[in-house]
Amino acid sequence: MEQVRAKILVVDDTKTNIEVLEGILSSYYDVIVAMNGQKAVSLAQRVHPDLILLDVMMPEMDGYETLRQIRQNDASKDIPVFFLTAKSDSQSEKQGLDLGAVDYIAKPFMPELILLRIKNQLEYKRQRDHLHELVAEKTEDLRKTLKVLLTSLGALAEYRDPETGEHIRRTQFIVQALAQELLSRGKFPEYIKSIEYVDYYATAAPLHDIGKVGIQDEILRKPGKLTEEERKVMMKHPQMGYDVLRGATRALGESPMVRIAADMALAHHERWDGEGYPNKLKGDQIPIGARLMAVADVYDALVSKRPYKEPIAHPVAVKEIEGGKGTQFDPDVIDAFLKIADTLPSIYEKFKDSEN
After folding, report:
1. Quick one: CATH architecture of 7-109?
2. E strand intervals along 195-330
3. Upstream peptide bond of 108 is cis (omega within 30 degrees of 0)
4. Do 7-109 and 136-350 have matching folds?
5. What mean pLDDT is predicted for residues 75-97?
6. Cα three-residue angle 348-350-353, rounded to 5 degrees
7. Which of 76, 212, 222, 277 is the most buried (most CB within 10 A)?
């Protein structure tokens, strides 16, 4: 298989210099040319060369400003850059290196030196890129392992509570849809940072009731309403869930997915007005995942049949959820819920409880 030739972007406002460099490089590399800084910035982002040879002294936009703009863009920030310069003073060299240039090549050009420096830098870049790929691969393997572990833990709740299985799937969908909607609105950017974080919240959602594995069957499976003492026992499940998740995953190290799952388990019965449990958290004290789960949990309870209640219609449930805006629920989460509400009946048709 023929090896793909590396791409070198040559940036210089002097045609003679470009012709000299093309003559030196073209036998070994694919050469791309720009005669001003603005064109160089555009090509760096669009073509993504393996290395850039950048003249310092250019009109309108000099090499230093060109490099600043190249480094500001995610598509080009990691491309190695050599400065081409007739200036050999240490201050100019320091300025370029401070901006992120990896080397200086002095004019007039020495072909052997240019080729050797480029060869060494491209080999270093190849090894660095390969290392990044290995790290990314190992990170993804760990993420998948952690996701399987959390999903397996969530399945435990299904074995304990016959009502839980489809409840888990439905609330998971709602949490995912809420997180996606909030991401699209730019809400909570420090907590819902990307589509990857939307997946974290969706993965964590089935674990919100994992603490119920520690509740006695006579309470967990009781067909009628609980007594006050039984209710107090049941109210321990958020802390139990938190302890299970933090303990079971501690050996794997800190992970955003684990933290989200643990916080969701602990705080999904908290209320925006501070009247929830177990810790009476209020407003922004409540983790984002728990705020999402609180809405999903209550909606599902309203529209689902239980031994002690009949389901209520979707429009009525939506109105009741909306009525909790600013008291039981985060107003921003309710706004997102109202946006996705019309999609829920079809999901509930797909994930009906077996007894319905």
Report:
1. 3-Layer(aba) Sandwich (3.40)
2. none
3. yes
4. no
5. 77
6. 65
7. 76
pLDDT tens sequence across 254-286: 678 888 989 999 999 999 999 999 999 999 999
CA–CA dist 294, 282 (Å, integer): 13
Strand partners, 31: 8
DSSP per-residue letters across 51-119: EEEEES--SSS-HHHHHHHHHHSTTTTTS-EEEEES---HHHHHHHHHHT--EEEESSP-HHHHHHHHH
Domain boundary assignment for the chain: 7-109, 136-350
Q: Please state the length of the chain.
A: 356
139 to each of 129, 145, 199, 250, how far by Cα in Å?
Answer: 15, 10, 16, 17
Q: Is 66 within 8 Å of 37 (Cβ atoms)?
A: yes
CA atoms of 183 and 193, how far apart (whole Å): 7
CATH tag, 136-350: 1.10.3210.10
Q: How far apart are CA 54 and CA 38, in angstroms?
A: 12
Q: Which residue has the tokens 């996606």?
A: 180
Residue with tokens 């529209």: 303
